[in-house]
């Protein structure tokens, strides 16, 4: 039962998984070039809101997560730093995996009955340049959704090493890339 697992142990597991995903995607994108993804993936959900469709159609929606350089702090240290200065529940950290999975699938989903995916959409991949920003944006969004007690964006930004205006932008794009669907059923969380 991961929801009741010791927080630091859970973050080590989460960091290892995110590091493996980012490293694998880094290898697929030599010299920072975007990798093409197949558009043959079927949608689990038939529709995407107009706002999210618009966000996915513009490169800036995903580029805002792309850092100029790979951060020197490890993913594990970053997660532990967030836990130390912005304590929250395991549910928040576990939801990141669900949200990241949804984000990576969203650009590949097809409209119900259409043979083509949504125009302008591309798959979204986690890599070493965006994983830290995705994590802090995800924790900010998930904390506000799952808990009655959360911190200000200025605190999350300070802990995450970002200016508050950047975190505000990342938070909005994170919501758009998740189609504002933040509910994570327990069964999906345990998968």
Automatic annotation (TrEMBL):
GO terms for cellular component: cyclin-dependent protein kinase holoenzyme complex; nucleus. It comes from the Eukaryota. Pfam families: Cyclin. GO terms for molecular function: cyclin-dependent protein serine/threonine kinase regulator activity; protein kinase binding. Signal peptide: none annotated. This is Cyclin-related 2. It comes from Tilletiopsis washingtonensis.
């Amino acid at each position: 039962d991961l929801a009741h697992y010791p927080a630091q142990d859970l973050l080590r597991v989460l960091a290892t998984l995110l590091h493996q995903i980012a490293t694998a995607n880094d290898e697929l994108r030599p010299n920072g070039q975007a990798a093409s993804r197949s558009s043959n993936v079927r949608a689990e959900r038939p529709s995407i809101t107009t706002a999210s469709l618009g966000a996915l159609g513009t490169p800036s929606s995903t580029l805002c997560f792309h850092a100029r350089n790979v951060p020197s702090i490890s993913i594990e240290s970053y997660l532990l730093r967030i836990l130390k200065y912005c304590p929250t529940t395991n549910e928040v950290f576990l939801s990141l995996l669900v949200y990241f999975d949804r984000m990576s699938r969203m650009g590949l989903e097809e409209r119900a009955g259409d043979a083509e995916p949504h125009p302008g959409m591309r798959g979204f991949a986690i890599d070493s340049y965006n994983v830290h920003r995705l994590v802090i944006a995800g924790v900010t969004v998930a904390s506000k959704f799952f808990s009655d007690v959360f911190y200000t964006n200025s605190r999350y930004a300070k802990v995450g090493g970002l200016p508050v205006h950047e975190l505000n932008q990342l938070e909005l794009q994170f919501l758009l890339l998740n189609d504002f669907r933040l509910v994570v059923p327990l069964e999906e969380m345990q998968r």
